Structure to design on (171 residues):
């Protein structure tokens, strides 16, 4: 399959439905942020502890499924309650070890800073998917997933800082 197709040269791109839409449409804006998040997670996984690399890779696969869901206008949905619960369980497990008591200054280590960038991109994607849900009626699971993912990325970043003795709480 060729990479260069020239089908987007007029500012349109194709959805899984076969429909052509503007590259700046809310669907493509959301998918662009999710794609950006996926790329930054790819970078972050080279800096996090080994135990967290598999988590980030699994998330990367799930993000492709989220993008497919949005590109099908909700007709293809592989990410659901099971994946959301997985994120929640990981967050609870890491929180138990973390025991955060105050606000923190992000980015005390390279690994945590990489995860904080991912968290911020996940929050942007979440806002964009919220628009899809409220204006077009699809993306509910994607919205919840991105919300839980940003929580997990925050907790993972703080846990790395705690383990390295560099957690900077602000009181």
């Amino acid at each position: 399959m060729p990479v260069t197709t020239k089908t987007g040269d007029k500012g349109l791109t194709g959805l899984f439905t076969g429909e052509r839409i503007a590259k700046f449409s809310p669907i493509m804006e959301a998918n662009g942020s999710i794609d950006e998040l996926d790329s930054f997670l790819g970078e972050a996984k080279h800096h996090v502890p080994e135990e967290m690399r598999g988590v980030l890779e699994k998330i990367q696969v799930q993000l492709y499924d989220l993008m497919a869901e949005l590109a099908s206008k909700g007709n293809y949905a592989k990410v659901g309650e099971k994946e959301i619960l997985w994120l929640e369980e990981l967050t609870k497990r890491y929180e138990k070890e973390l025991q955060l008591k105050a606000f923190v200054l992000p980015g005390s280590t390279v690994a945590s800073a990489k995860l904080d960038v991912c968290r911020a991109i996940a929050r942007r994607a979440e806002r964009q998917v919220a628009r899809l849900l409220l204006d077009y009626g699809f993306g509910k699971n994607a919205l919840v997933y991105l919300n839980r993912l940003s929580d997990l990325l925050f907790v993972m970043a703080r846990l790395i800082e705690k383990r390295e003795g560099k957690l900077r709480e602000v009181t």
